[in-house]
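Reopening this ticket.

The earlier resolution said the output was attached, but the attachment link was broken on my side. Pasting everything inline this time so it's all in one place.
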Amino acid sequence: MPCNYKEYPENWKWLSKQIISDAGNRCELCYAPNHELIVRKKDSGYPWQLAENVGDGGDYPKLTKVILTVHHIDSDKNNSKKQNLIALCQRCHLRLDLQKHMKNRRAARQERNKNELSRNGMRCWIRPK
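Inline output:
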């Protein structure tokens, strides 16, 4: 989902670049390098491998370009203190926000269903037993 910069402090672009730089341009959870092509590993002890190091085993793995973003640890966009911010790859960021995304998706689905019912004149049929 694109970033709505109106919800962040005026210096957010500078601050987020600073957080990523301070993290060594790597995800602070899985250490994936920013702007590199990697292969996610499910069966190894390490969660990813640089694409250039993947051998030609005949099967072609899915490549992922790492793009680091900055996550608010306490989920409060108004709290942009450095100790509340962490640089994360797409996968780690989504995993940390999974419950919030599921809740938002459920609410959006319920709202869409409610709107469809009202547009259709509340035509709900209950099948007799």
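Reporter confirms the inline version is readable. The mean pLDDT is 82. Residues 51 and 106 are 36 Å apart (CA to CA).
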